[in-house]
Design a protein that fits this description.
Helix content is 27%, strand content 21%. The chain has 412 residues and is an alpha/beta fold. The chain folds into two domains: 205 residues, Alpha-Beta Barrel (TIM Barrel); 142 residues, Lyase, Ornithine Decarboxylase, Chain A, domain 1, CATH 2.40.37. The strands form four sheets. The protein has an eight-stranded parallel barrel with strand order 2-3-4-5-6-7-8-9, surrounded by six helices. It has a six-stranded mixed sheet with strand order 16-15-18-10-1-19. A three-stranded antiparallel sheet has the order 11-14-17, with no helix packed on it. Helix 6 links the parallel strand 5 and strand 6. Helix 1 packs across helix 3. The longest helix has 19 residues. It is elongated and about 80 Å long. The two termini are 25 Å apart. Bound molecules: pyridoxal-5'-phosphate (PLP). The site of pyridoxal-5'-phosphate has 12 residues, from strand 9.
Length: 412
Amino acid sequence: MAGVTFPPFPDGAPARAVVDLDAVTDNVRALRGHAPSSALMAVVKADGYGHGMLPVARAALAGGATWLGVATAEEALALRAGLGGVDARVLVWLLAPGAPFADLVRADVDVTVAAPWALEEAVAGARAAGRTARVQLKVDTGLSRGGVTMGDLPGVLRRAAAAEASGELRVVGVFSHLACADEPGHPSIARQAAAFDAALGLVEGAGLRPEVRHLANSAATLTRPDLHHDLVRTGISMYGMAPGPLLGAPGEHGLRPVMTFQARLANVKQVAAGEGVSYGHLYTTAQDTTVGLVPVGYGDGVPRHGSGGSAGPGGPVAVGTGTDARVLRVAGRVCMDQLVLDLGPGAAERAGDVVTLFGSSDGVAHGATVPNAQDWADAAGTISYEIVTRLGTRVPRVYLGDHRPTEGEAQP
Ligand SMILES: *Cc1c(COP(=O)(O)O)cnc(C)c1O
């Protein structure tokens, strides 16, 4: 469980993201505890929210996930190729016209029909692949994003029932997505739940018998057991973050952060009082002080909106890993490759010392609370999802845990 030891920071490496795959496995177990009567789909789109799609998928399956969810055809095919013969159901939900339906059907991926055109392409793909397509219908119950509208649904269901009768496809699932599940009590949740029930009634009435009906994302998994249906689709919570500030801290739900983003001070030096720091001189030193240079910036995914100075406090950074670790705020602009901390007069830090932008306190900063992705989201006016997902390819992922990729295995 908690309390892993981080490996030493390799000499010369400016930054790293430690990804604790055991935390993924444990988080999935915890989430299954929240939804004990439903199957669990681990959502691993966008390279596993920046954590690494394949390692996260394996760790999630070890925790009891039986489904994997991705957005794009490319992700679905990469998942199948990377997992080899591993037994897992895969669903892809964001397909554009001309998507490789035949390849997806051959790879035994469930394809989402979210618009009338997609039903025709799924049928064509099934014919080309010479096998029955597994189709899941996505219904728009009020997000007004993807999904078949309630108005188009009867026609799509008639066409789907005909294609099912001729063996071209089988409707194995029906699902929808919530707009405001991270705001418990938001009136749209009840409206969408009712619309989903109505859609399920139409599906039933069309003679279709899907295996799975699903609506819940992380927020609904944690707060709305009545909406769990047959399957819950968990993304952010599986990575150890709460879906939003209104849902409390991850620990309250039995979750812990998976990713820890660290860098090493590249320079520590004295700066006189009254000097401007970083581009635009957004921050001015109040006294003779010590500044520390952190060699990560927006080119690595640190949001520039996490700059600190006259416009407000910057993103938080835990400095050090020992008992004297402390949390400071970014001083001045976040640049493409670097940012600056005001370490204060007489600071003891040295170039090479480790700083932690966000993540787990495990083996990092005893005595100081390591900021989490939500803290950075608050500082930058965004959500924790974006903070982890945008972490750049320049930052090497270092995997810990039983399911870490083996030496020589291609890292995503
Ligand atoms: C991304 C996504 C999810 C996961 O949402 P979280 O809030 O990260 O749990 C679930 N379902 C669909 C359709 C998605 O696009």
